[in-house]
Amino acid sequence: MIKKSKKHIIIEEAARLFREKGYSATTMRDLAAQVGMEAASLYNHIKSKEEILNEICFSLARTYSSKMQEVYYSDYTPISKIKKLIALHIQINSMSSPLATVMNDEWKHLTEPCKTEFLDMRKKYEYQFIDIIQQGIDKGEIKNMNPRIALYTLLSSVRWLQHWYHANQEHNVNDIKKNIMELFLSGMIENQYEWKN
Amino acid sequence: MIKKSKKHIIIEEAARLFREKGYSATTMRDLAAQVGMEAASLYNHIKSKEEILNEICFSLARTYSSKMQEVYYSDYTPISKIKKLIALHIQINSMSSPLATVMNDEWKHLTEPCKTEFLDMRKKYEYQFIDIIQQGIDKGEIKNMNPRIALYTLLSSVRWLQHWYHANQEHNVNDIKKNIMELFLSGMIENQYEWKN
DNA sequence: CCTACCGATCGGTAGG
DNA sequence: CCTACCGATCGGTAGG
């Protein structure tokens, strides 16, 4: 991105407002004020409020998808693939960028046919992720667990990082990554402690 | 709850709509249609749209808080306390009730002074939960990890259950509870498998 | 619980 | 990029 077009700036500021107030509660006049122009002038750069949401959701969805293709067809072991994907999610969710929050929380305001297209992309991503987990189970690297439950729990678990961007001073991303990875891969229990009842 | 007052019904239907379309995008006319009356008639039972959101958020917040007091001051070990609290979160998030989703996703539309009051309740809850984890670490039951990171990851990880209420046929709640508990307590890696690099 | 209606504000357009 | 403005719809009220 060599030069930030006005459109680009508008979308960035919109993402910030959508994260803060939600898509529906954000008005074009809010956005115009943020960018420093009148509401009517926004329409010289964007077609509609809806278009902005589309651009946000799909740009990030494409990032996830292309990274998935790269990992899925690589030669790493299933565990290594999973680690790479978790790292990707942590990275994206802990960036100060509001894009992740908006995609995760506001996609339901997409309208057809974009909504279906978006959900299809997500479904494919999840399908490939589940397949990697299943391969890990088949190879004996991963415990025999329900791969869908494991996936949803994994993806869900790193979402809180979205809301933590303001406190990134306390721990850096690598610290957090290490903690979460350890938690998922080998659990929180000390090995010598007997907990099952 | 012996008899469902009209107010109770209105709040329940509102929660369903808020979950589906979001608080801001849900209109009082949508809600009126759902309940089977005119928009103006709603105001014989509730004071404002805002009041509905308040009731939803605080009723569930009180449920969490009172359960926390019960667990926090009990004689169980830290690990057992954590298991009880995770079970509570799984239970609430996997109920078909829309209350959990609304509280989690729409609290930002609360207005002052309710918003601050709500966040204070949440802060206290988190503080007590972190304290339990820290006690587990001090006792050597739990690995030495950052308790705040562990907590947020834990609480975040069960949220996907909210969106899964429609597919509850495939696995029952106990199945899911077992899977998630195992994942958190001892991880997804087979013990004999060497993964650290 | 309804009809009738309010002031405000919404996303967006016309025309320059 | 602005002024001026649009039809629609919002949360809510008056009065019965």
Automatic annotation (TrEMBL), chains A, B:
Annotated InterPro entries: Homeodomain-like_sf, HTH-type_Tx_Regulator, HTH_TetR, KstR2_TetR_C, Tet_transcr_reg_TetR-rel_C_sf
DNA-binding region as annotated in the record: 27-46
Keywords: DNA-binding
Domain of life the protein comes from: Bacteria
Name by which UniProt lists this protein: TetR/AcrR family transcriptional regulator
Ranges where the HTH tetR-type domain occurs: 4-64
Key word DNA-binding present: yes
PANTHER family linked: ACREF/ENVCD OPERON REPRESSOR-RELATED, ACREF_ENVCD OPERON REPRESSOR-RELATED
